[in-house]
Amino acid sequence: MRSPVLTRLLAAALLVASSSAALSQAAWVPVLDVNDLVIKQVAQFAVLVYGLAHHRDLAYVGVVRAQTEQAVGGGTNFRLVVVAARPDGGGSTARYDCLVWGVPGSRSDTWKLRRFRKIVQG
User: Fold this and answer.
1) Name one GO molecular function term (predicted).
2) Torsion angle, alpha carbons of 44, 32, 70, 74, to 10
């Protein structure tokens, strides 16, 4: 006869194992239209927040590639390759690898810029 505590522990372990399997199945999905309004807004958010946080004057130019993934606990992760330029840089542009989390349709203060790194061409 099993004790109630052992039964609960076993049930909890099964629940964790099943949720871990579900999380490992989450996959990045390519966005076919990088000119989609939501994708453009997420990219503009990333450029703006990075510029404000790091005192860089960057201007959004466009999105090269985008992927989305359902985030654990809700919301959506956006992985983007964004092109931005320094307005005073004579028109030179650079690509940036961005990771943004947010809930489409929610207020902007709930969104988070997780990563914004310059992609070194080489």
Assistant:
1) cysteine-type endopeptidase inhibitor activity
2) 50
